[in-house]
Amino acid sequence: MSDRYGPAPRRRARAVRVGTVTVGGDAPVVVQSMTNTDTADVKATAQQIAELWRAGSEVVRVTVNTTEAAAAVPRIVERLAMMGVEVPIVGDFHYNGHQLLAAEPACAEALAKYRINPGNVGFGKKKDVQFSTIVETAIRYGKPVRIGVNWGSLDQSLAARLMDENHDRAEPWDAARVLREALIVSALESAQRAEALGLPGDRIILSAKVSGVQELIAVYRDLAARCDYPLHLGLTEAGMGSKGIVASTAALAVLLQEGIGDTIRISLTPEPGQSRTAEVVVAQELLQTMGLRAFTPLVTACPGCGRTTSSFFQELAKTVQEHVRAKMPEWKLKHPGVENLSLAVMGCVVNGPGESRHADIGISLPGTGEAPAAPVFIDGVKAMTLRGDNIAREFVAIIDDYVARRYRAEAG
Prior knowledge:
CATH superfamily of the largest domain: Dihydropteroate synthase-like
Helix content: 40-55%
CATH architecture of the largest domain: Alpha-Beta Barrel
Strand order of the largest sheet: 8-7-6-5-4-3-11-9
Number of helices: 13
Strand content: 15-25%
Shape: globular
Distance between the termini: 45 Å
CATH topology of the largest domain: TIM Barrel
């Protein structure tokens, strides 16, 4: 039995430059998101991109489906620059991308990358021409392309061809395997076609998205074994709330653990009134809890039990979590390395002191029947005991002071 600890070594993929961000090669896994505003609305779209960027999205994709949307893209990029937001913008094209890029050259130039869906780029005899037009535009402006296949819009002529080939096999595959093969072949043949047209191989990223966990794992394992293009991971139409989070995590964690994946997106359906940034937070937390990247201090907190009848430790854990996320835009500029800070908020004496000692800063709150005192541990040593009604405020102040002292010294 292997005693290897941690994820497998990353699959070696070509490095693709997307604006200021590198995808693949030795670069860390990149977090991506997508807006849901009308791209033609410059103000709303720029505002949402800024929110996603502040939350930690390193690449943001926008829908480009109309002439108005295409014309808005350079204005959005200009507005973002005025806001001090530097994030690569990707244009998502379906059906009419060849027309929009030709009609709006400023859009073609402003975008950091184009996304093409081979199943929606065109139909019949027009497909090759329209695909070629987009690729030639990417070549002209020096842009990378993501060839993104989706089983909800799979090229039906390709699927039919593979079904016919399967019929002639001595031992035919089942229909699900044929469809998985169609996704992979669509991506690979499109990439080969793009290279034949003159697009360098180090400007191509592939994705092959499905909405089933096991299907996604099977597709990407096979795709990773058959090419060295960077791979964009995502469970398409993951769903809302805990279902979407669990499904995306279940699929992507397996692949990331196997060293597969160079950029990810969590395709959550936002709950009414919920910020679009939730998908960015989930992506970051997935990578951070797997030990692949660090984005913000992690807060360990106990789930509660019969010993923790008070809800105070839950409220404190929430306060601390919200505080560190709110402070990160400032901290990451002033205190490099603070994203590796570990915090613990525990609810009773059973595991509280032990977990608190393992964290950089931890607090063990009193459980039922325990003395009304909360020892605080800093770097594994009991530093003080908090009491009274201001524990939350005092503990947050301790965190702020620790960050200022420790990470300013490391940065300087």
